[in-house]
Design a protein that fits this description.
Elements lengths: L1 H7 L4 H11 L3 H13 L6 H13 L3 H10 L5 H13 L3 H10 L5 H13 L3 H10 L5 H13 L3 H10 L5 H13 L3 H13 L6 H14 L2 H12 L8 H13 L3 H9 L6 H13 L3 H13 L6 H14 L2 H13 L7 H13 L3 H9 L7 H14 L2 H14 L4 H13 L3 H14 L15
Length: 453
Amino acid sequence: MKQSEYALSDKYTYPLLIKVCSNELRLKEGEIVHGSAIRCGVSDDVYVGSSLISFYGKCKEILSARKVFDEIPERNVVSWTAMVAGYASVGDLENAKRVFERMPERNLPSWNAMISGLGKAGDLSGAKKVFDEMVERNVVSFTVMIDGYAKVGDMASARALFDEAPEKDVVAWSALISGYSRNEQPNEAVKIFFEMVSMNVKPDEFIMVSLMSACSQLGNSDLAKWVDSYLSQTSIDTRQAHVLAALIDMHAKCGNMEKAVKLFEDMPSRDLIPCCSLIQGLSIHGRGVEAVELFNRMLDEGLIPDTVAFTVILTACSRGGLIEDGWHFFDTMKNKYSVVPSPNHYACMVDLLSRAGQLRAAYDLLKSMPLKPHACAWGALLGACKLHGDVELREEVANRLLELEPEKAGSYVLLSNIYASANQWLDVSIVRDEMKERGIRKIPGCSYIFTEA
């Protein structure tokens, strides 16, 4: 060991080794290299020290990063920036700000590290303030802000900054396209993709995954075929798990179940994501029994379902009218897998029971919820009450909905209509008087619509 350390006792060699450990998040190996640097007397070097601060920061070992930062005799802008980035990576924005404000000098990476930390924490006003203070900005600065706005759903601000950026690389395009896709604006995502291609920018795998997600939301089979063909002409490795999962999801939701199933069966190994994608596809296209079979097969293969997986299968049971299977999975979720049912799980079960005309069972289930049910669950039951002509229960449910959404005109209108259909005109008058007292007005042309679908 001593001989190998002697061969490495060079302040220029250690930063390279530490960088490798940093890129691969190899904490144990990095600590060994750190120890070797100490024994060889180069740990006080500013370049070695800066590399160690960055390494520990990326590995979330922020106390170790701070210890190195405090102990190195000389610090440069790289050392300070690594410390800011380290604090930001663990969400400690207070210390990140303190270090940032104490910096003797700042460069572009310093500013970008600060706005990135603020953006990831959802503090877009703070990030924008720092962004506006920057004398110089680069494509990274703009991309960090675009991604931050996209993550909080402010696509108007994200697009405005994108248009303002003097230069755009593939990462900036990816931030905008994925933002539109994540925020359920698939048409805009597709539009931006074609704009990007027209400017001879080659998409990477992440952009293609976002495009496939947008295509899944649209359910456009022709677009799915085009995307599949386009992808096959690129150098992107479609065997990568996240790319393959996106392909399965796209084909399943766009109706090409044969292609989706083939891709799924050809996978060397499968996790929950492709399984849930295929189950959703089967469910959407009226193949609920097959969806249940696939879920059971997934369990037999040893995969452990999470809360999302149970939402997917309960939705499939609801669409397929599979009451026994729905109850089975709902009970299994609680008793075997210790998954606490969320309001979404209860809403799926209420929808399942409501579609089957088991209105009282649905009502009792909602009342038994330990958490407050959201309006969608009551709305689904109310629609079923209307469909099955249960006037008495419909009034109870409408009142519950009114308690949940006391400021929404639609809830009052629903209750008023229920009373009107039963010729209870005094009650109609009381509801309308209450609306006037609260200053609530029905928006013209807006109504609740319940369907059998």
